[in-house]
Amino acid sequence: MSPTRQQNRRSTLRRWAPRGAALAVLGLAATGCASNELTRLGMPEPITEQAERVLALWQGSWVTAFAVGILVWGLFIWTILFHRKRSEQLPPQVRYNMPIEALYTVLPIVIISVLFFFTARDQAYLLDTEEPADVHVEVVAFQWAWQFNYMDDTKENGGEVLFSEVGIPNPDGTADRSTQPTLVLPEGAIVHFDLHSPDVIHSFWVPEFGFKMDVIPGRDNAFQVQMGEGTEGSYVGRCAELCGVDHTRMLFDLEVVPQDEYETWAAEQEQQNGDEAATEGTGVETDFGEGTGAEGTDAEGTGAGVTEENDE
Fold first, then answer.
1. Could you say which of 51, 149, 226, 270 is the most buried, measured as most Cβ atoms within 10 Å of its Cβ?
2. Are 205 and 183 in contact (CB under 8 A)?
3. In CATH terms, is domain 135-300 a member of 3.30.70.580?
């Protein structure tokens, strides 16, 4: 290739590079720079501190992936543009290049090690349940609804149920918001969740929490969240584990309210259900007619239960 032709190609590349960069910036602006949806990369708006940590890990992973992708594709493009076949003459043959081989061996190990460190650190943070909680909720998942037992302490510490919110599966197999339970939580509070299932594996998931946790029969999992300030609103939770034919209708509502409003609501619920819970040994009985219900943790005397009646 003549020097003049090579110089013209480089001049063309220099001329189009700024235009390409400007076009990329315009595309980013057109996709909505007025909001942070683009920077969240598909994640919902977090409403807990734990979700903020998950979002940061998610964004960091994408930044790493973009960096590796740009490097690899840059090398591809550089090779295609500047190392094309120019003649029939065979280029100099090199058997190996130790610095480059060491680089592409060590660099992936470094990247994976860094990602592993941050993943292990954030996982430990998400599963930490040592902080004293302001609200304790036992989540009972059953086919195909939810039961939320508000407790005065964690299940591990022998907490007693104050009141319960129980969902009722619809006989026709459809989702009905009027029968879905509502989980009410206060802004800025530390909430402790104990997860229990009497039948099959379910998964407790609020997308705005940033992660989900399995609800496994015979194994009571637990986690905590620190609710964020300014997160008042309505959200939808669901089961994220295929748990049977009516898995899709296993939904619940989440209402995040100010602290004073939550205290008023909780006091009303406790007053309304306190006498009945004490009379029935902290149990709530509901007949679903189809033999479907949650047992809670009645055997230990620390949960609200739903009994089932089957026609023999």
1. 149
2. no
3. no
